[in-house]
Amino acid sequence: PNHKVTLNTHLKVSDKLYFNPMMMYFSKKYTYLYNNNLDLVLTEFKPEFHLNLSAYLVANDQLKINGGVYNLLGQNLWFINPYNSGDNPVPEHRQEILLQISYRFNK
Length: 107
Fold this sequence. Notes:
Order of helices and strands: EEEEEEEEEE
Strand content: over 45%
Structural class: mainly beta
Helix content: under 10%
Distance between the termini: 51 Å
Number of strands: 10
Shape: elongated
Number of helices: 0
């Protein structure tokens, strides 16, 4: 079984600043991998925990800035096929940094 629990919240720090922590827990996963003898073996992957943090600043009516870090803990995370496809798991980005600036020209 593959279970996922997500906690996503939105905290208003001030009228212009918002803080958004997000936590995700993935239970252990299983897939088929080839061993050294080229035999398919059912392999277990340990549970994973993601922690993402972002902040959103409303500077004025026209300018908004969003910044954050995904996979803050820098864990080795994998995309895993739950069936025998012959493909190895694919690694996810170790960490990602986001900076988004939006500006509206017309009021």
